[in-house]
Design a protein that fits this description.
Number of strands of chain B: 0
Number of domains of chain B: 1
Distance between the termini of chain A: 33 Å
Order of helices and strands of chain B: HHHH
Shape of chain B: elongated
CATH topology of chain B: Four Helix Bundle (Hemerythrin (Met), subunit A)
Radius of gyration of chain A: 17 Å
Structural class of chain A: mainly alpha
Number of strands of chain A: 2
Number of helices of chain B: 4
Order of helices and strands of chain A: HHHEEHHH
CATH class of chain B: Mainly Alpha
CATH superfamily of chain B: dinb family like domain
Strand order of the largest sheet of chain A: 1-2
Strand content of chain A: under 5%
Largest sheet of chain B: none
Oligomer: heterodimer
Largest sheet of chain A: 2 strands, antiparallel
Strand content of chain B: under 5%
Chain lengths: 186, 127
């Protein structure tokens, strides 16, 4: 498996994790902050999508922090409907996945610019994946708090760790993402 | 971080920061085991995945778990650095998962829970 393929699979895993969590949250709950003055799931969706869209539009030829991106606005409520919000989410991800699709491991030592700083492509991708996983963790945590006992688990069910380990499942990131998508279908 | 903050839960049956610390240590151990082919059973704590914390709500107990996290991180990093580059694309002890995918996965897993730890700190602070 190439470096690019392993990164693509992890990106898709975290995309699927977020979507499986968002699917369990009511429309109004998307806008609820985690605490007073805190971020809502809506804000985190727009922040992750805004970051991906900015970083990966003209990825190799322009600075990853675009003049048209207004990062601070991502942390203000935009009052979007679920459909609009998911469109914003998909827009960001499609730019990322489309750009990564064009890369091969031979490109990894080339340089891109983020906020006027040069970064190797492999560093830029790992940093982006880390940022995405960080906020997806928060989206999942908040969604779980909203669902409480009705939460459909996205990983190993409570008390089933030993059973899971014994089976030593063939759980690649891609397989995990596919399982999450299947379970999220109505 | 104080033991009180590390032990704070946002609700019943929700994990606290302390449990996320031990969870991250456990999965670094699992990744190390799958990378090196070591046998099961050498994680220093009883239990797996999520281990209930705290047992003792003291600074020393929290520090012991932070030290465990550091140790598992160090051991995994050393094992990863020792893998020759061509070996990265070969299988690990986790079926169907290359060593490279294993390492990419455990790094992202760390960040996933780091985001939750940061969120928990803010939630606890806003009470």
């Amino acid at each position: 498996m190439s470096v690019i393929a392993s990164l693509q699979d992890e990106y898709r895993r975290y995309k699927a994790l977020a979507e499986a969590a968002i699917a369990q949250v009511g429309d109004e709950e998307l806008g609820h902050p985690a605490h007073d003055g805190g971020n809502s799931i809506e804000m985190l969706i727009r922040h992750v999508a805004g970051n991906l869209k900015s970083r990966f539009t003209d990825f190799r030829t322009s600075d990853g922090e675009k003049p048209w991106r207004h990062r601070d606005d991502e942390f203000e409520s935009a009052g979007l409907s679920r459909t609009e919000l998911l469109q914003v989410w998909e827009d960001g991800w499609s730019v990322l996945l489309g750009e990564v699709e064009k890369l091969s491991d031979g490109d990894l030592s080339a340089t891109v610019i983020v906020r006027r700083q040069p970064l190797r492509i492999d560093e830029a991708l790992h940093r982006s994946l880390a940022h995405t996983a960080y906020h997806v963790g928060q989206i999942v945590f908040m969604a779980k708090a909203m669902r409480g006992g009705g939460w459909h688990t996205l990983s190993i069910p409570k008390g089933k760790s030993e059973e899971y380990n014994q089976k030593a499942p063939r759980e690649t990131a891609a397989a995990h993402a596919e399982k999450l998508r299947e379970n999220s279908r109505p | 971080m104080t033991p009180v903050l590390a032990a704070w839960r946002p609700g019943p049956d929700r994990h606290n920061i302390w449990e996320l610390i031990v969870h991250a240590a456990y999965w670094k151990y699992v990744a190390w085991r799958r990378l090196t082919g070591a046998k099961r059973g050498s994680f220093p704590l009883a239990g797996s995945n999520f281990v209930a914390r705290p047992v003792e709500n003291t600074k020393a107990a929290l520090q012991a778990d932070l030290d465990l996290l550091d140790e598992m991180h160090h051991v995994l990093r050393e094992a990863a650095a020792a893998v020759p580059a061509p070996e990265l694309d070969r299988g690990s002890a986790q079926r169907g998962v290359t060593k490279r995918a294993l390492l990419t996965g455990v790094a992202a897993h760390d960040l996933y829970h780091a985001g939750q730890i940061q969120l928990l700190k803010r939630m606890a602070g806003s009470r």
